[in-house]
């Protein structure tokens, strides 16, 4: 679908942050849980030998920063993307619903994704080039 904004409403970035805040659900930290569904203990082979089983490693965490600028938004250190570009509509709709945008979903579903929204709407995005002197 397309993201359609009412021009009589306030700033589009404000609306994105407000919708994301309203849709946000506090998720419990699964690492802090004392009860685990994984079996740990000692197993016995048919030969009678014992084999210790180690718990599975915790899932990996991935973080992404989405920065909203006066003239668009960036994902991590990527290029500036337009708020009005239809190609970004589903991405912005996901953010407004506090969902992970499809393009940021990990291939391994056990990997946790944390998305940080950064509001720099008072600034224009500009590419800062470094100059090297030889």
TrEMBL record:
Any Pfam family: SEP
PROSITE patterns: SEP (PS51399)
SMART domains, sorted: SEP (SM00553)
Record-annotated SEP domain positions: 61-126
Database matches in InterPro entries: NSFL1C_SEP_dom_sf, SEP_domain
Source domain of life: Eukaryota
Entry-linked PANTHER family: PLANT UBX DOMAIN-CONTAINING PROTEIN 5-RELATED, UBX DOMAIN CONTAINING PROTEIN
Protein's name according to its UniProt entry: SEP domain-containing protein
């Amino acid at each position: 679908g397309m993201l359609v904004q009412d021009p009589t409403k306030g700033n589009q970035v404000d609306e994105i942050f407000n919708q994301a805040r309203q849709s946000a659900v506090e998720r419990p930290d699964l690492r802090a849980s004392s009860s685990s569904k994984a079996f740990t203990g000692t197993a016995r082979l048919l030969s009678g030998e014992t084999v210790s089983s180690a718990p599975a490693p915790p899932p990996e965490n991935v973080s992404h920063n989405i920065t909203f600028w006066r003239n668009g938004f960036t994902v991590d250190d990527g290029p500036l993307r337009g708020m009005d570009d239809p190609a970004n509509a589903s991405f912005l709709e996901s953010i407004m619903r506090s969902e992970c945008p499809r393009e940021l979903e990990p291939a391994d579903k056990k990997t946790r994704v944390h998305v940080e929204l950064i509001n720099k709407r008072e600034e224009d995005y500009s590419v800062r080039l470094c100059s090297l002197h030889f």
